[in-house]
Amino acid sequence: MQRFDLFATPFFSGSLGADTDIIEQALNEFRNIATPLPPDAGGSNVGGWQSGGIKLSEQYFECPHLFQKISNEIVKITEISDKPLRFNSWVNINTKGSYNRRHSHLNTNLFLSGVYYLRTPEGSGDIKFWDPRGHWVHGMKDHKFFYNGNSYLTYTPKQDDLLLFPSWLDHEVDEHKGDEERISIAFNVAYDENA
Ligand SMILES: [Fe+2]
After folding, report:
1. What is the 103 CA–ligand 1 centroid distance (Å)?
2. 12-125+155-191 belongs to which homologous superfamily?
3. Quick count: other Cβ atoms within 10 Å of Cβ 69?
């Protein structure tokens, strides 16, 4: 007998090997011109600062060095090299006490979502990914046996980590407890079906 995890959720993580100085420079320029999302604009952040790129196309965070490296990783893991990838990206700056509510990036045009961690100082919270099978599973014996009854799994990010996951997967970020800013760059990826 062999075990098959039917409809398992694809999730990817690892160090990207990007030059954080180049990204820091792009970020500093972006911070001067970007308008943070207003609190009622549907961003996931509570406190902190989230750039408008998630909603306003003219404010996407651009950094060719970073997105070329991310593209290369996506091509490696998916063998999607025949289709041009399109990114929209935004910056999350978490100050002490801020966090990101549980949310997904639900949009049928998207292929994957992801996040790159530029700064993860002491006290940075974990990111949680929620079991997409739904809450009714969580009281069942098989779930307790195979998944220890967990309704979410956590990942502790470190600087230069890249995570990729399906856009529909619910996630949230713990409260940031450190004094220094925790900075991540989040993005959605789409590709052109007809390319
Ligand atoms: Fe998100």
Report:
1. 6
2. q2cbj1_9rhob like domain (2.60.120.620)
3. 18
* d(CA 192, ligand 1 centre) in Å: 22
Q: What average pLDDT does the structure give for the chain? A: 91
Ligand 1 centre and the CA of 1: distance in Å? 38
pLDDT(55) > 60: no
Nearest to 50 by CA among 115, 6, 94, 105: 94
Judged by DSSP in three states, 21 sits in helix
User: How far away, in angstroms, is 101 Cα from ligand 1 center?
Assistant: 9
Confidence band for 163, pLDDT divided at 50, 70 and 90: very high
Which residue ranges make up each domain of the chain? 12-125+155-191
Structure tokens at 42: 């549907």
21 CA from centroid of ligand 1 (Å): 24
pLDDT at 67 over 90: yes
